[in-house]
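W.,

You were right to be curious about this one. When I first looked at the sequence I had no strong expectations either way, so I just let the prediction run and decided to look at it fresh. Below is the sequence, 226 residues in total, followed by the output.
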Amino acid sequence: MTALGLLCTDHRGEDDYPRIEQLLGADVRVDLVRLDPGAGITGAAEELRLSGADAVVRTGEGFTHDAEDEADRVEALARQTGMPASSTALAFVNAARDLGATRVAVAAPAGTHEDAARLRGFLRAGGLEVTGTHTAAPAPAPGSGSDEDALLALVAAADTPDAEAVLLADPALETAAHLPALEKAVGKPVLTASQVTVWEGLRLAERRVHAPDLGALFTRTPAPGL
């Protein structure tokens, strides 16, 4: 059994994780540990250790820090929990590299120009060329799900001809049920927050799981060096 601990700072989009756990099979467990904004990590770290987690990934925040700060925060999380650690933002970079994609189109959450610039800078720092950025409308409220037609329109709007993958950067989107349809629509890998978050946890735990319903990321041979 491989157990993944997801440290959630935003509850939107969390309904995706039980579905992903089901698609991965009986020997992978995905545990959500909720952390209120501004709360200390001590209690959450203890909960993760008691759950038997093999790795922890912080999710729910998206690209809220630059690459250097995010690396420092993840290093601190690893020290505090005593286990391999990462974040959704770093997972996007690692997942794209794993697929061999260096040019990506991005659907970014609605925000300020500074938010969009930080996202692009973060991806560039990870070696990714951003071929286009489409600012998306806010994700649905918690529990309302994400409509496949709306997701298809979002992927199509974000995609550019020279992109090797499309990133849906909003961690509030619920995408796990729609990944094959999204990839079929654009003919290339589509990376989403919940998908890359779980994949990153498995990578840290040194597990590879073949799960075609979770998109190309869960079917391809890893690129060298990851």
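Here's what jumped out at me. DSSP finds eight helices and eight strands in the chain. And, maybe more interesting for your project: The helical segments are 16-24, 42-51, 67-81, 88-98, 113-125, 148-158, 179-186, 193-204.

Coffee later to discuss?

I.
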